Amino acid sequence: MKSPWELAMQIGEALGIKPAERLLHVSLSHQTLRLFQGTEALADYTVSTGLKPPSNQKNSLGTPKGLHIVAERVGGGQPTGMVFKGRVPTGHHFRELSADENERNLVTTRILWLRGLEPGYNLGGDRDSYDRYIYVHGTNHEEAIGRPASGGCVQLRNLEMIDLFDRVRVGDWINIVS
Question: Which pTM was predicted?
Fold first, then answer.
């Protein structure tokens, strides 16, 4: 069985893409994210992915599978728990919002915006992860971490999101697998 690093490198090679320095490996079945630098595992995080079945289809609310790249990093320097709307900090911590507003899964703390690398699978047309606004981000529902609960994004506890954000750069790969 191939390691997560070997699997991602095989996909990248088939696509003719230069290898990334770091790899984020997300397992949907285990609700985990493992950060690699080369073949060395640097950190493990428990995550929450889509409540709906995995899907690369627009409007599915499922977490898309396949090889992605970190296209943008948003929110560096913002306080833990800051709420973002349209990738812009609102100036409010999620605890400052009403109970009604906090019922939704909010985008908090930091954002890693993903772009698919596999044409026709997670890049382009109605299967484009970037156009679907698929992120790795903090959440106001940390109690749900460890089980599917998001609208398709990969969610982390806020302090862990800061740790991951500080380790990851634009151009790093993220492979999302079953």
Answer: 0.98
